[in-house]
Amino acid sequence: MKKKAIVLLSGGLDSTVTLYWAKSKGHLPFCLIFDYGQRHRKEIFRAVKVAEEIDCPYQVVRFKLPWGGSALTDRGLSIPEGRRLDEMRGEIPATYVPARNTIFLSFALSFAEAIGADSIFIGANARDYSGYPDCRPEYYQAFREVAQLGTKFGLEGKKIEIYTPLIHKSKAEIVKLGVKLKVPFALTWSCYKGGRKPCGRCDSCLLRKKGFQGAGIKDPL
Amino acid sequence: MKKKAIVLLSGGLDSTVTLYWAKSKGHLPFCLIFDYGQRHRKEIFRAVKVAEEIDCPYQVVRFKLPWGGSALTDRGLSIPEGRRLDEMRGEIPATYVPARNTIFLSFALSFAEAIGADSIFIGANARDYSGYPDCRPEYYQAFREVAQLGTKFGLEGKKIEIYTPLIHKSKAEIVKLGVKLKVPFALTWSCYKGGRKPCGRCDSCLLRKKGFQGAGIKDPL
Question: Does A116 touch chain B (CB under 8 A)?
């Protein structure tokens, strides 16, 4: 019998490749999608389309961070544009949402316990990334401890694994992996602005562009 | 200048004593209250009353766990009654909400980063408690690592402390501490059922009763 797994799905490139990867490895993915007031709300609909395309059940969790603090949720703050990769690595941008991945993983942990899934997949990447602290391997190592110690599962001696299959990959390698797994890139969405077309200038667009260019493939978006 | 602190406030006995304790130690508490579909919704209003009484700002975060899995959020499941303390320690009850404290702490971490608070207070108790895994000291130790590694604060070398001042206290000691700190016990609410009067039979009522009896004080509820 296939083992249930929770996959955090934003509808972007990385999480979609992660979902296809988990399925290809024989897991039975349950997608977890967040509606947290992000200005690129569009990604939520794309995430749902991706989950439907690959025929996986999904849940949408809604919450709002009343304290703001991020350009991703606060339209009064502007999204940085045109940053070079070395700048992205050197400085945490205004799009950082305080403790976002910790909140996401906590809900994933709750979902995993509730349905008896024994693993969580997250498409975090610590190579071609925006400098977010909650994308680094040591952070995930710490969260594994929390998952083990803070759950009924853990107390009963069962193991909950947290997989970060893309963490050391370049964006080009992620795109290539996606091609191999037949990921429907046209359904995904990366741009932080969530307009009709990708802006091409935010960190997320620039990283995506780098990936497709590096892989020598045309982005269907 | 007083240092900002996030206090997780449920409106129950332990979190209210924790709030008064934090304030007495010179912190500037910001209360964090959760509306997560608990059947004892009444505790939310009590938490707000407590925050107003002690004159602390507060935020309410709303979310729902679409996967259920707990008698505290699912009216189709019944709340265990009449358990002895040794039974509570031996078995995780149906009122356990999967990964709840991890979700709560994650939001607290986000709030702390957003307003520049350098500590989080939670009234967890590992002595007179319901056997929940996320009430144990080793769990909090693991979460401290996550807080440090998963935030901008942590990356910048600042320390975020997680305080669990009640973790080793008995319920009687907590009540006595509350008396000393002039905690308005009449405003608090513990019963899981959230009826007009406390049921007197759920784990939470029984633990509260044990505390007041042990301290030799009459519960104003």
Answer: no
- Decide: B191 and B68 in contact? Cβ < 8 Å: no
pLDDT digit string, tens, across residues B92-130: 888 889 999 999 999 999 999 999 999 999 999 988 777
User: For testing the chain A interface, which of B32, B103, B156, B158 should be mutated: the one with the most A CBs within 10 Å?
Assistant: B103
Any A CB within 8 A of B102 CB: yes
Cα dihedral A96/A100/A101/A106 (nearest 10) = 170
Q: Would you call A107 and B65 a contact, using CB atoms and an 8 Å cutoff?
A: yes
A72-77 contacts: CB < 8 A, separation 24 or more? A72/A38, A72/A39, A72/A40, A72/A97, A72/A192, A73/A36, A73/A37, A73/A38, A73/A39, A73/A97, A75/A39
Place of tokens 């603090």: A69
Would you say B80 and B203 are in contact if contact means Cβ atoms under 8 Å apart?
A: yes
Chain A residue whose CA is closest to B34: A63
A102 contact B CB<8A:
yes
What is A3-215's CATH superfamily? HUPs (3.40.50.620)
- Note the pTM of the prediction, 2 decimals: 0.95
Beta carbons of A140 and A109 less than 8 angstroms apart: no
ipTM: 0.94
* Type of residue found at B75: R
- Among candidates B72, B76, B9, which has minimal Cα distance to B37? B72
Domain locations in chain B as residue ranges? 3-215
Q: Residue B107: what residue type?
A: F
Question: What Å distances lie between residue B58 and B9, B16, B33, B55, CA to CA?
Answer: 9, 13, 7, 9
The size of the A-B interface in CB pairs under 8 A is 152
Q: In b/e form, how buried is each residue of B14-41, taking b as 16+ CB within 10 angstroms?
A: bbbbbbbbbbeeebebbbbbbebbbbbe
* Best to test chain A binding among B149, B153, B160 (most A CBs inside 10 Å): B149
Q: What is the pLDDT of residues A48-102, one digit of tens each?
A: 999 999 999 999 999 999 998 898 888 888 888 988 888 887 788 888 899 999 9
User: How far is it, in rounded angstroms, from Cα B221 to Cα B210?
Assistant: 14
Nearest to B124, CA basis, from B144, B98, B105: B105
